[in-house]
Amino acid sequence: MRYFRTCGTAVLAGLFASHAALAQVRPSLAQPLPPEQFSACVQGLAEQTSTSGRPLQRDDFLRIAGTGKYDDRVRQSMLVQAGEPTFWWDELAATTDDERAQQGRAILAREAEALQRIETQFGVPKEIVVAIYGIETNYGPAAGRIPVLDAALTLACLRPCTETNAAGTCLSRERAFAAVRLLRDRRVVPESFVGSWAAAFGRTQFVPDTYEMIAVDGDGDGVADIVNSERDAWASTANHLQRRGGWRPEQPVYIEVSVPEGQRAQFPATNSSIRLPAQARPLSQWIAQGWRVITPSRPPAQMAGDPEVYPFLPVGLPGPAFLVTRNFDTIRRYNFSDRYVMEVAVLANKIAGGTDFVTPWPTDDPGLTRAQVRELQAWLVTRGHTQVVPDGVQGRLTRDAIAAEFTARGLPPQRRVGQRTMRMLMQP
Questions:
Q1: Cβ-proximal residues to 189 (8 Å cutoff; 6+ apart), any chain
Q2: Which of 151, 179, 227, 261 has the smallest set of CB atoms within 10 Å of its CB?
Q3: Is the Cβ–Cβ distance between 177 and 168 less than 8 Å?
Q4: Distance CA 6, CA 416 (A)
Q5: Using CA atoms, how far apart are residues 272 and 242, in angstroms rounded to an integer?
Q6: Are 75 and 158 in contact (CB under 8 A)?
Q7: Cβ atoms of 232 and 216 closer than 8 Å
Q8: Neighbours of 116 (CB within 10 A)
């Protein structure tokens, strides 16, 4: 699964949080890693194979890792993550738009029998599985193009651990070791072993060490192939949610609520989400305290019993407020991002025929759908920004062009546009 996403939430926390104290020994991200330093790093990793959580011989590591190359796209992506903040309303508008929901419903119809079988086997709703597929790789075509071995080795060298880490506990090192083992054991085909800068691969984006432990055969051919088999990817994703989180059937991920007036001061507007799992208690107790469930045209999911829930406010108040179940935490184990969880949950709800949540975001410039971003990008190309590709993603090149256009028109500079600012920027 993809532990890192192109969003402004603690992107690197999942992989490197345990190594924050080692910042003084890490290479600088300001410049590419010199070839000699990368080679020395690979040699150093070879001397640490005895610390691997699973068996790996030094000679096997050197034979395979010796073919790996430093990939500077990893470093550049890490810098983009740190320096290009985004808003909740931008991310969700693009990732859960009608276009993606319709594609998800088409997959549900096409693969109804297989997806129902997976849901029955693992207890995870098929809409959640398909939503993860949609968010991770846009239902397949956006799985990434960076060789996973190169990405894993580059990450391990850019964010190294020390030999004092207990065996199997250094996540960046384990990722590189796992990538080597997958190639050693021929569990992956080198030519198709490609993925994201975070070394995630396949249709639902598993990192190598998670693939080793979680991937399963979903199509009955005896092989867990998450690259070429949708059913293997779906079953592996459902297995992850069941094994690592214990999915609770018939409980929604979130319940939209209004916070009682007397308690609203506890949830001020914030630059980071407010998530309070320590306050989990039965939904009935929250309702008794005045928390009111806001019911859209179709509830997020059928709710059984009186589930334990806790407050989650993406941006504080004013803004949407939710009580979330332990299924929220389960999706979060797939990707350590609050924003990712809501993207998956909202998209799954829309795929199932539901709607967005009711409370608007606290902004006068809501985010764009991917179709609207493509329209903007096509306009930018006509303005001479030929480096922009109309792909529906406000990436670095698109943001550079946006900033240039704001400056050219004598408007206050900014690197993103929403519904209001797109109209303002594109007006004749």
A1: 227
A2: 261
A3: no
A4: 14
A5: 28
A6: yes
A7: yes
A8: 12
Q: How many residues does the chain have?
A: 428
> 421 is written with which tokens?
């600012």
pLDDT for 33 = 96
Q: Which structure tokens are listed for 308? A: 């334990």
Report the chain's terminal Cα–Cα distance, integer Å: 44
Nearest of 53, 26, 29 to residue 41 by alpha carbon: 26
Mean confidence (pLDDT) of the chain: 90
Place of tokens 């073919």: 67
Beta bridge partners of 268: 317
> How would you write 259-305 as a 3-class SS string?
CCHHHHHHCECCCCCEECHHHCEEHHHHHHCCCEECCCCCCCCCCCC
Whole-number Å distance between alpha carbons of 367 and 374: 13
Q: CA 65 to CA 45: how far, in whole Å?
A: 9
Beta strands in 158-206 (DSSP E): 194-195
Identify the DSSP state of 282: E
* Residue 200: alpha-carbon gap to chain centroid: 10
Distance CA 245, CA 258 (A): 28
Using 50, 70 and 90 to split pLDDT, how confident is the model at 62? very high
pTM: 0.90
Q: Does residue 342 sit in helix, strand or coil?
A: helix
Element (H, E) at 183: helix 171-184
Measured between alpha carbons, how far is 207 from 39 in angstroms, rounded to an integer? 23
Contact assessment for residue 172 and residue 156, using Cβ atoms and an 8 Å cutoff: yes
DSSP 281: E
Bridge partners, residue 321, by sequence: 257
Q: Both tokens of residue 325?
A: 């179940």
CA 354 to chain centroid:
22
Tell me which residue of 318, 285, 325 sits closest to 301, measured CA to CA: 325
Do the Cβ atoms of 392 and 374 come closer than 8 Å?
yes
At 359-370, the pLDDT tens digits run 999 999 999 999
SS3 365: coil
Identify whether the C-beta of residue 418 lies closer than 8 Å to the C-beta of residue 426: no
In this structure, what token pair is assigned to residue 100? 């993606």
Cβ atoms of 108 and 126 within 8 Å: the answer is yes
Q: Is the dihedral of CA 311, 315, 321, 322 positive or negative?
A: negative
pLDDT digits (tens, 9 = 90+) for 155-187: 999 998 866 566 667 899 999 999 999 999 999
